[in-house]
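Comment on both lines for my students:
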Amino acid sequence: MTNSTTTSLRYDLSYLNQVFQGNKEMVNNIISLFLQQVPEYIKEMEDCVKKNEPLSLHPLAHKAKSSVSMLGIRDMESDILKIEQDSKNLRNLDQLPTLVYRVKETCQLVFIQLQEQLGNT
């Protein structure tokens, strides 16, 4: 499945390949963990936004941050960091729904790309 939105990769596995010295099984384990956990975190973040519970966003963003960072998802990393900081400090609350939405959109694209990556290894 390739279209204009999924043709350019939105992740970078350089860090994982360096840490695991090119061990594809270990890299794939991290990818699988991301695919299992991060979409659930994002769903929970959406629920927090709907319920207007900004303080509850902080731990979810914090949990997602390391996975997003390890997979080099730069588009998502900055938004996750901003969600984490702003929800913890109760600032820029009006921007949180937009940030969560952007994270969800990026995650959906990356999810497809990472599933394809796993299928190709």
Summary: The chain has one domain: 14-119. The domain at 14-119 is CATH 1.20.120 (Four Helix Bundle (Hemerythrin (Met), subunit A)). Residues 1-6 have pLDDT under 50 and may be disordered.
